[in-house]
Amino acid sequence: MASAATGRAAMFKVSLRNLAAHKLRLALTVLSVLLGTSFVAGSMVFTGTISNAFSSIFDNVALGTAVQISPEKGQSAGVPDSVLDEVTARRSELGADRIVADYRGTVTLAKANGKALSTGGAPSIGSAFLPPDQRLSDTDSALKPGGRAPTGDTEIALNAAAADKAGLHVGSRTKVVTGAGSSMPIPVTVVGILDVPGDTGGFVNVQFDQSFAKDMFTDGSHSSYIAMSAVRGVSDDQLKQRVEQLVGNGYKVQTGDEIRQEEKDRINQFLSVFNYILLAFAAIGLVVGTFIIYNTFSMIVAQRVRELALLRAIGASRGQVTRSVLFEAFVVGLLGGVLGLGIGIGIAAILRAVTSGSGLPHASLAISATAVIATILVGVIVTMLSAWAPARRASSISPVEAMRESMTDGASSLRGRTIVGTVLGIIGIALIVIGAFGEGTGPAITVGAGAVAVIVAVVLVAPALSRPIVGAMGTVLGKPFGKLGLLARTNAVRNPRRTAATAFALTLGLMLVAMIGTIGTSFKHTVDTTVDAGIKADLILSSSNQGTVPASVRPTVSRVDGVSQAVGFGGISATVDGASVVGTSPSGPIGSVLSVDKVGGGKFGPQEQVPADGLWVSKSKSGDRGWAVGDTVTFTGPSGTTVPVRVEGVYDNNQLLGNWLMGSGAYERLMPEVLRSDQVILVKIAPGQSLSVVKKRLEDATGDFLTVSVQDRAEFKGQVSSQIDQMLSVLYAMLGLALVIAVLGIVNTLALSVIERTREIGMLRAIGMSRAQVRRMIYLESVLIAIFGAVLGVLMGCCFGAALVSTLKKWGIGDPVLPWSLIITTLIGAAVVGVLAALWPASRAAHIRPLEAIAE
């Protein structure tokens, strides 16, 4: 027992001394682990920080509210006044104390310079000002000294953070635009600044006189919600139960705690998605890192053959040799995890600083025990799993066999994995082809499964592929360099496992780049062709803040000189047979601004409109719902109004129009005026008019609405393409982590290869090879490995991306388009990366002293 313990201690001591003796090798391996774990730590700490910040804000939501009654559905006319009257009349029976009705809606506030105040995605809400005797909490939106309550229809009170950001103060004059309804921009004066609890995050709250807020945000017979406090002795849950029994179904009744928890759950759901995205990229980096770690430990074991053989000769068991290598991996993983945690915290701090200007709430860094433990465990587990195969290989070394000069990977050792990989690749390709000819979620999953199978197949087959492919590339690229090119080619194909593992780290990163690039390029091409073929309008008016255009904009546009036709597409949210549906209602002839094909042939004519009480449906919606021409469909609107409409026709699927079009008469009966707004307004200019001149007139006419954007077709396409490019840039930046790790892998492999080939390089130097020639030889090896990885990655990525795009035809996405500029840039970049990755290893190789190397 004692001797076994002594043996284990001795082996651990050997492992530690081995790590200490090869500090550079240790540093390179730790770095490959560190890069992945730092991303894990950074994402967990940052999202935890933001979550805590929002939680502190939501702790101040619905202060003093025991129970709140709100509409069951999101877009609704609100809670009828009859409910307010009934609750008020039975206040004592319910056990309610104060009861208040609020009236609110979306608004846009102008800054002191007349431009719209951006919220960075936070809500911008208009609501009713409540005097102190009506508030449910003494700390809820109290007026700061020097201000007063707004009265009439030209005064507002404003939360302090929004006032500071907008450059407004008591006495400032500005204007407010509502997000829906037919009201025009409202000139207002700031008469009060509000001290709102948790006033941060870009949130804007504009408060109006109660009666004016009701007129502006409701139809006059509803409130946005009803809130109440409970008398002493009645719990929130008791009051909730009594209110539920009173109001019945159709309303959402919640306690204050439930409202706060709902808000927290909503932001945490968003943050969890954000966190999963960050962790997905961290996982990609770690997967790439596993190939580097595997390669590194494989080379370390190969270089320590004699050392390990000697240990076996003096009594070390196979298990002890395996554990010694795994212990080294444990130390590397532990160091990588701990250092990655520190750097990840730094990344989170930088992200917090960068996002502080966007209106996100500020909070101290949330370094949870979960983040610490997860980061370190990920580092240790990934490293030890990656080193497992090399450790097992080390234990199989027999003392006599290992005393040979070197160990070689025979071609026979590749035969089994190549056969398995080939079969798996055929299955994967078949799945991709089958999925590519389908449409929807199922085929996309099939393509994904096939892609995974192909990736695994390439991992298995890559060593066998590396010899012919790298050999052929080496012949072509190395020819101008003569014997140096031949040597570089020979060295690159000498160890196919090592070459494949090093190259595949780059393959995985570039595969994702090419796949995302193919999808993005296809999306942009679809946008271009759809706009060119489908939009006949000359100008497009939309909301610049991702919202809708107020209904009062279209009449203003129609009166502008040079406008021939202005067709607004009013947004509709309703229910049919209990299911929520969304659609649009064109205000004029569709054929004048859009090219729309009818099922059965023909197009909408220039003056053809949807009948006032009729409905046109898309081909797909007609099939899904079973709606045929002549059928009557009953819609239930936000205020509960039911409107029967007759199906008048079916049009081919058109992503510009959506699933159905309702006539203007039915639309006006279905949607309350305060909820009406246009998703977009399409404008056709009169013959002989200058596009630029009419565009300028429209910009001037709609400027007071603050958020209306006027674009021609080229600008509209450019905006959509720019949004796609921004999203792609973020994804490419995140994939940069995997590419950095892959480049590090090439550096690591070449550096260890130089150490392994010290005697060989010394011999070449002794027979006349110059230092410059040694450098060029290493450069060429690195370039061959990098281009091999890039070719595999680009080929797989483009195929996977094209297959996924093919499954999206149901949603109007066109045929796949390859990103040729990205492909060419990637291949050229791979060659450059190969040279850069080889700079340091080549310099080390060039400075090897011939005599010392031969004597080693």
UniProtKB/TrEMBL annotation:
UniProt superkingdom: Bacteria
Cellular component terms (Gene Ontology): plasma membrane
Domain MacB-like periplasmic core: 27-246, 499-700
Region feature Disordered, mapped onto this chain: 123-152
Protein name according to UniProt: ABC transporter permease
Family: Belongs to the ABC-4 integral membrane protein family.
InterPro entries to which the protein is assigned, alphabetical: ABC3_permease_C, MacB_PCD, Macrolide_Exporter_MacB
Keywords tagged on the record: Cell membrane, Membrane, Transmembrane, Transmembrane helix
Pfam family, one: MacB_PCD
Molecular function terms from GO: transmembrane transporter activity
Domain ABC3 transporter permease C-terminal: 280-399, 733-849
Subcellular location: Cell membrane
Bilayer-crossing regions: 273-294, 325-351, 363-388, 419-438, 444-465, 499-520, 730-755, 778-805, 817-840
Membrane topology designation: Multi-pass membrane protein
Species of provenance: Gordonia jinhuaensis
